[in-house]
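CHAIN AND CONFORMATION:

***
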Amino acid sequence: MNYPIVISTWPFGMAANDAAWQVLASGGIAMDAVIAGATQCENDPAEHSVGLGGWPDASGEVTLDASVMDHAGRCGAVACMKRVKNAAQVARMVMQRTPHVMLAGEGATQFALANGMREENLLTSEAAARFEQWKRETAAAGKPAGHDTLGILAIDGGGHLAGACTTSGLAFKLPGRVGDSPIIGAGLYVDGKVGAATATGQGEEMIKACGSFAIVENLRRGMEPEAAIADVLQRLAERRNGNVETDVSFLALRADGAFAGMSLRAATNFKFAVTSAAMRQLLDARTL
């Protein structure tokens, strides 16, 4: 069995993995590990797709989406949350302290504040300057910019799985837009007996495909992790009449520690981070 192990999306996942690995290496549980990794990324103003310093929506407001899920199927999420940077922590609070799965908008913010989170301005000077540039250059065309997401999956020393997915969403999106990251089964899904999956890229595509859930179900049917992702990407491409020119990538982590990362198109240049007792590497994902 190849665990404990943690995998996450994109090169910035290396720093997130380092934070998560500190938890796993000391005997901590997978949920604490993925929250530690997500928090590291959310606190870094240099990462413009997650948390503090994330690119704002088309009104200039930073809004955050996140979800968490554990090996027992417990889950929580926040969508379109403002003024609180640690969205994954709040998603965990939703899971642990309410009978609900998702809180959205101002309700999510007020819940976070009532549970001890700090309110702050998430729009950094760098992000504000980029927003003004976007307004000058592309707002008239109505074109949002791209973005990345931190999806992080872990198995602890006891063999328990957990995952988190956190993002500031599509840069300069329409106010109120919610992507796949807080939607259980789209941006994240965990089955403690089977495996886990998470997504990054164009969230609307993941939602339409129930992508992360579909990958875990493929694992349940006995597919290897890469084949499980490839099957979902193939179905997505067929739904698009063969057009693969969209940003869609997934990670899969099987319950025994086997993993894979895969992207719909080569132009995405998707990389993912892997940390275990045997390795600490940034890997290039294969494409469909």
User: Anything to note?
Assistant: The first helix runs from residue 13 to 25.
